[in-house]
Amino acid sequence: MPTGFHINEQDLIKIGLAILCGGILGLERQYKNKIAGFRTMILICLGSTIFTMAVGSGVNINIVTGVGFIGAGVIFKDNVGVSGLTTAAVIWISAAIGMAIGSNDYFLALIATILILVVLVIFNLLERYIDKVHRDKLYEISFVNHDYDNISKLNHIIKNTDLRHRTIKVTKKEGNLITAILVTGHQKNIYKLDEKLMAMSEIKSF
Q: Which domain holds residue 35?
């Protein structure tokens, strides 16, 4: 063993606490099948702790920068939307917890871990409820012809399904009338609208 090497009880507490806090957040992400899960969160929290222990608070800005690159790597954008933002935020806060542990602020680290878990689990249920009762859906509907009466009929159907709507655009392509409509309302009413649209002979696709 190299001369001068030593690890004391407090260092072991910090390492254990970093693994615990990172593991708690990682389990939640792993359970939801996110790209950065159990092991990743442990390593980020533990790494931030060790860097802070070894170098001190002066390295904090470098930790934040480095973790920012990791977080950016889990964010994806496609035609549907953006995913990975919550996981990126958990990565960022895991590093903050690690820095708190490395700076001997154990109580802050534990309270932060518990609060984050509450946000991820309890607030997720609230978010899902809100999304259920107030959902937006953008329809692009192509009719079999260019008869504008079809749009009036469509508006009437949407209104009778207890949904609010706003016409984004109306165009014609290859003899077909195409409209984009943003619909807002309860999820069950949007499902009903889908069924009614599928039953309309005037609609080619949506």
A: 9-132
